[in-house]
Structure formats: structure tokens, C-alpha cells
Amino acid sequence: MPQIKYYWEDFAVGQVRDLGTISPTREEIIAFASQFDPQPFHLDDEAARASVFGALSASGWHTCSMAMRLMVTNFLCETSSLGSPGLEGLKWLKPVYPGDTLRLQSTMLETKPMGKRPDVGMTRNLWEMFNQHGDKVLHMEGWGMFRRRTPAAPTP
Amino acid sequence: MPQIKYYWEDFAVGQVRDLGTISPTREEIIAFASQFDPQPFHLDDEAARASVFGALSASGWHTCSMAMRLMVTNFLCETSSLGSPGLEGLKWLKPVYPGDTLRLQSTMLETKPMGKRPDVGMTRNLWEMFNQHGDKVLHMEGWGMFRRRTPAAPTP
């Protein structure tokens, strides 16, 4: 298990992190869609051409999962992350096509102690994914829970 | 391609649909996490026992993807679905463990025409997933776009 480098106290509003790139192949897009999102426009070129997407594109859940992979590999694995209770919003803004290069960026929006657990803090992050043309394809705002380096003092 | 049974006009606020069940195996949970969410508590029993989840549990994105599979197979494939612009909220409420039986239920919250496209209508749905104990594990509110059976009359 990697060393923990960042605890909750190390996060500050406004911090921006570049979390690397990932590029899905046509085979990966079809494999994910076959298992989890078998809509014709994610599986078949002809159906995709007739769809609003214009060509074979990745399931939105595949895009989220690829963003998660970058988050874990390039950020969470070095942190005291305890998981996430969820997201406040998620937008699939543009289709993701085979061979696209997707770059993930995170911006810290808010940090706050977790009332009921003095050893845990919460963060609210903006996660944005851009393709090689600079178009934003994914926008998410989500909460994270991180262990604190030093638990909060008990409230009197 | 299956026959379209439901167009946008066929959806009404308050409709509740039972969209079947899905049960992830331990192998599927580890395979998904290895590819997309390699945090120790999704891969390794010992790390999982030491985590807030108490035992090996599925990536939240795996849970969402399983919900999508039920949506597509038991609902969207019979509709004029054109995809989704995103979600307004997503909550991972309880861990999902190997062998859990997850049931998906959808409730129609809102329907409205799509201003800029007379042939398309929007829906806002609540998606809820429950485990075999009746505990809600996933809560999502999301938008869908569906082709209309009859395009809206042009506004004068």
C-alpha cells in the first residue's frame, strides 16, 4: 500500500490538480458498453451514425469510470481517502470517441470537518475532463471523505 | 434492434417501474475495481476489513454501471431514448457486497418538451437501487432525452 502523503488538512480551497490522461480504444468502449450499457449507439457503427452522437461513442458511465481511474492512480492512492458519499451534479457534455485523449483536472471547492466523526474531514471537488480538442466532456461536483492527520478537539 | 414501445409522450409523472435485479460476484467486483477504481478496499479483503466498509465492496461506479445495465435491458431498449445530459444528484448510501441482489426502481418526476428540438422531450427520473435487505444503496436523479411520437407544433 502506498504511503499516505495527503490528509484532509492538506487540502485548501482553490487548489487545482492535473490528474493525467487516459485514452479509450474502440475495443474498450465496446467491451464496457456490452457489459453495462448495451444501447445500439455504443455498440454498432451504423446505429451510432444515425444517433445524436454521429459516431460510436463511449457510455457515459465508462467516461466516469475512466475519470475515477485517473483520480485513484494520480491522486487518491497518495491520500487518506475513505470513499465518497456521492455527487451533487454530473454532466455528460460531449461524446467520447475511440482514441480520444481525456485529461482530468480537479479543483478544490470546499473543505469542512465531519460533524459526527472528529477523525474525518469532508471535501467538495470539481472534476472536469477535457478531450484533445480542449472540449469539456465531463463535469462532476462530488464529496470526498478523508482521514485527518490530527482529530478535531472535542467540542466543549 | 428491438421495436420502440415507448416514446416521450408515453411517460407521466408518478409512473413507477420495477426494473429487475442484478447480483455482482466477487470476481466481477474485483475485475471492475482493478480496471477503474483500484483502491485497496475494493480489491483486498484485509484492507476492506480495516476500512469503513468492513468487507470487500463494489466501486460506486460499478454500482452505477449495474444500475445502467438494468435500465437499458429492462427499459431503455424499448424506448426512443436518445441518451442523457447528466444527473442532478447521485448518492452512494450503503456498500454493495459480493452476492448482494440489487433491485432497480424508477419513478418519473418530471417531463417537459425540449425547447430547441420539437422532436425531442426531456424526462427527470428518480433511480433507486435496493439490496436484498431492503436497504437503499444508490439514489440518482437524472435527465433523459426521448424522441417524441409526434413533434411539437411550431410556436407562432
UniProtKB/TrEMBL annotation, chains A, B:
<dbReference type="InterPro" id="IPR002539">
    <property type="entry name" value="MaoC-like_dom"/>
</dbReference>
<protein>
    <submittedName>
        <fullName>Dehydratase</fullName>
    </submittedName>
</protein>
<dbReference type="Pfam" id="PF01575">
    <property type="entry name" value="MaoC_dehydratas"/>
</dbReference>
<feature type="domain" description="MaoC-like">
    <location>
        <begin position="15"/>
        <end position="115"/>
    </location>
</feature>
<dbReference type="InterPro" id="IPR029069">
    <property type="entry name" value="HotDog_dom_sf"/>
</dbReference>
<dbReference type="InterPro" id="IPR052342">
    <property type="entry name" value="MCH/BMMD"/>
</dbReference>
